[in-house]
Amino acid sequence: MDEYAQFKITYFAECAELLADVETQLSELGSGSEDPEVLHAIFRAVHSIKAGAGAFKFTKLAEFSHQFEALLDRMRDGRIQVTEEGVGILFRASDILSAMVESAENETPLLEDFGSQILEEIKTIISSDEEPSPATPVMAVLQQTEDTIPVEKNYTISFAPKTELFKHANEPLLIVRELKTLGNVTAKPSLERLPLLQKLDGEEAYISWIFTLQSEAPLVDVEEVFEFVTEDCDLNISLVAENQDEEETKEVNKSHEKPSDLDQVTTPKATKLAAKQNIGTPKATSIRVDLDRVDLLVNTVGELVITQSMLSQQTNELPTDQFPNMVRGLEELALHTRELQESVMAIRMQPVKSVFSRMPRLVRELSAKLGKTVKLTTIGENTEVDKTVIEEISDPITHMIRNSLDHGLETTEERLAAGKPETGQVTLSAEHRGGRIIITISDDGRGINRKAVIARARERGLIGDTVTPPDDEVDNMIFAPGFSTAEKVTDVSGRGVGMDVVRRNIQALGGRISIQSAPGKGSKFIMTLPLTLAVMDGMIIEVGGAKYVIPIPNILESFRPPKEALKQLPTGQNLVYVRGEYIPICHLQQIFNVRAAEQDPSKALIVLTETEESGTVGIVVDQIVGQQQVVIKSLESNYRPVPGISAATILGNGKVAPIIDVEAIYLLSQQLMINSTLQSDSAPVPTDTLEEVSIVEADNIELASDLIEVHTTPIG
Amino acid sequence: MEAVQPNTSSTAQSASSDGLNENSSAPLGNQQFVTFAIGKEEYAVDIMQVREIQAWTEVTALPKQPNYMRGVLNLRGIIVPIFDLRCRFSQGVTDATNIHVVVIVAVADHIIGILVDRVSDILAVDRGEILPVPDVEDQGDGEHIIGLVTAEDRMVALLDMGSLFKSEIIQDSLDDIEDTSEQTN
């Protein structure tokens, strides 16, 4: 670990942000933006990367970013036209830049000629811009294309850095070095402000300089040297005329700027420009915090919430009239704890923009590769979700966008033949609904080819030869493992792994995915995910003495049904009649094999829950204990996934309570029912043989979850 | 200044961990094991795997688990699965009381708890003293024993917790199920 390690970490964190920024701005540019600020922003980002690379001696990175910067520089002042092709090069260059940053970060050496091709292209463009000197790269940047014959000029530059200059990690020495590339420099330091040694503050700026520069370079180039420090120093660049004629030329050249009687052009313009840039991109008042620290905070607050709920549980029994202050104090504590928790969680919330902004680029590249014209519309990119969720949704979204472009949208000819507009529409949207985030990806393509899906399902033995499932079941079969109906495997998507992996990843996050499709009109993937993977509102319920948590967002209502509202289908499915509707119910105690639970729903309670795919489902529980915000703890960090349970939490008494995955529970109950109708004597299990039974049941689970794999697919 | 600070602290840390290694392994090829018992049978795990030892407390049973999986425990905010070692070796379920002991061990990235009757000793064994498990026709759970050690006149079996609870702690167990389902299809 070298002593700069810490700075390097910061540098790479910054690089990641800068690169993301470059990406966003490039997409903007790619969509035809002519805002000069876009190019300026890219230029600034690349410049910052270059500066750091130089400081840390990442030679390749520094050299590449230098060329990249040179190209951008030319583009932003209009010396090189921003063409479609040019944007393509910028995109590729930004890829190379990312790869190089990554390689520098991980210290994995790249191939010697990595990126050299694009480097050549950039150099070609740059040198085509200036005929006279395809000379050294440094000179290439600094040379101006003014058509005046270069004449040696004398500049006097007074340069007085302010303290901020050092705070912004600039270094006068580097500026002097860059000045030297323009010509002969003599520097005269002014030590007037230098205090006595004992009063010297190492971080203050005391010294100023007066440089005299002999150079052929025009004033703009000299100004450019100071471009990044104009705000942080007192700068005065003046031209000392050698003869009157030349001064005239100078004046003419600069006439569009501020005409000056004196031979002195100060840099108000540069300063003004910088100020304007600051208005365009308001400086975010944010600090960079290590995610581990935030996590620690979140965990500690989580423990605090548990302690708080334990306290309030115990004081619930206290008579309010005897301890009024105590009770009031605890109520306030509860309020504050909740506020604290919410604000801590808010720290981790980020707009999905960071993921969405990568997609225009993907679409652009893919559509070029596939020869389709596609328009991507993104909606709701400011919808916020927890950082942990953001990290996980990027891959599924990418995959589904690829899928939409490759399989969903027809080729241009097919579209025209079908009477559709030539440009395919893909919409990516995000919104909050019911404490979850819903992400939909829809296209106006050909829709699911149901015939092909059915054929493939038969081939794989998922459905019988004579069975034709309903349309929505067929559509959802594409989520079955190894299910790709693409006629040809392309390098865009469709290698037979795909949607099943997407679905599994989403389910692992506690999310669900489904598809709606209309032949010839398009498909729509709907992904719902929890907003955070850390806390949720839960209803604590009790079954046979064991406590479970049902997520509040799932719960519609709870009630004790009258006996006559309970019905049974011939299949054995229990139903409850609520306000003109028959709703399937399932018994937690059957599924979880809990002893001593209330069997009769009319003596117990039914909690009506809403599921994404199975509609409304009633769950029979013994009693409701209370509502509580629970901290979600993963079971899987130390154990394998448990069917029917999405995670666990820790209750006020320090005990673990499983969090119920309502959808999975319902499907488990369906499976149990099918199994029990298969076994003719499915009488209630006597408790004394319970041990043996639990082994059998354990086997059943595997069978059950196996069948669920198949089962969830057809369900809408 | 800031850059130097973490640097020195990390060197301090690595120095101390080096010190630990020296104590535990360097001199004689010594390895230390925590031994525990189920009835009369004695088992041991590498002391470096043991995180802590605590008395049995009531756990939260999870639905539909193999019967040697007793449930989960809250270990200062981490949820830890507790396995009944007796039952894992098919000798019936332990009737756990507060004199029974849970040994918390770290296996790969996972923290699991093992319910045993009692913890007996810490055993320092020279690596050369670890005897191989004799080849028996029907291995059964024998494959989870990595060696045998004689302590005084008792035989102690060194357990490989990772292989013993492999299916419980490997995330991909769901994939296995899917794989078998594909085969049956």
Please characterize this protein's 3D structure.
The complex is a heterodimer of chains A (716) and B (185). By secondary structure, chain A is an alpha+beta fold. Chain A folds into 5 domains: 5-142, Up-down Bundle (Four Helix Bundle (Hemerythrin (Met), subunit A)); 153-280, Alpha-Beta Plaits (2-Layer Sandwich); 291-350; 352-530, Histidine kinase-like ATPase, C-terminal domain (Heat Shock Protein 90, 2-Layer Sandwich), CATH 3.30.565; 535-712, SH3 Domains (SH3 type barrels, Roll), CATH 2.30.30. Chain A has 23 helices and 22 strands. Chain A has a 6-stranded mixed sheet with strand order 14-18-19-17-16-15. A 5-stranded mixed sheet of chain A has the order 6-8-9-11-10. Chain A has a 4-stranded antiparallel sheet with strand order 2-3-1-4. The longest helix of chain A has 26 residues, at 5-30. Helix content of chain B is 24%, strand content 38%. In chain B, the strands form 2 sheets. In chain B, strands 8-1-2-10-9 form a 5-stranded mixed sheet, with no helix packed on it. In chain B, strands 3-6-7-5-4 form a 5-stranded mixed sheet. Mean pLDDT of chain B is 74; it is low at 1-27 and 171-185. Chain B is built from 5 helices and 10 strands; from the N terminus they run αβββββαβββββααα. Chain B has one domain (29-168): CheA-289, Domain 4 (OB fold (Dihydrolipoamide Acetyltransferase, E2P), Beta Barrel). Chain B has 185 residues and is an alpha+beta fold. The N and C termini of chain B lie far apart (65 Å). Chain B has helices at 4-24, 85-88, 161-164, 166-169, 173-184; strands at 30-38, 41-46, 50-55, 69-75, 78-84, 101-107, 110-116, 118-126, 145-151, 154-159. At the A-B interface, helix 1, helix 12, strand 21, strand 22 and helix 23 of A face helix 1, strand 4, strand 5, strand 7 and helix 4 of B.
Write the layout of secondary structure elements.
The complex is a heterodimer of chains A (716) and B (185).
Chain A: H1 5-30, H2 36-55, H3 59-76, H4 84-106, H5 116-129, H6 137-142, E1 153-161, H7 163-167, H8 172-180, E2 183-190, E3 208-215, H9 219-225, E4 233-240, H10 244-253, H11 268-280, H12 291-315, H13 324-348, E5 349-351, H14 353-356, H15 359-370, E6 374-379, E7 384-386, H16 387-408, H17 412-417, E8 424-433, E9 436-443, H18 450-459, H19 471-476, H20 499-508, E10 512-518, E11 522-530, E12 535-543, E13 546-551, E14 555-559, E15 566-568, E16 574-578, E17 581-587, H21 588-592, E18 605-611, E19 615-621, E20 623-631, E21 645-650, E22 656-660, H22 662-678, H23 690-712
Parallel strand pairs in A: 6-8, 17-19
Antiparallel strand pairs in A: 1-3, 1-4, 2-3, 5-7, 8-9, 9-11, 10-11, 12-13, 12-20, 14-18, 15-16, 16-17, 18-19, 21-22
Helix pairs in contact in A: 1-2, 1-4, 2-3, 3-4, 3-5, 4-5, 12-13, 15-16, 16-20, 22-23
Chain B: H1 4-24, E1 30-38, E2 41-46, E3 50-55, E4 69-75, E5 78-84, H2 85-88, E6 101-107, E7 110-116, E8 118-126, E9 145-151, E10 154-159, H3 161-164, H4 166-169, H5 173-184
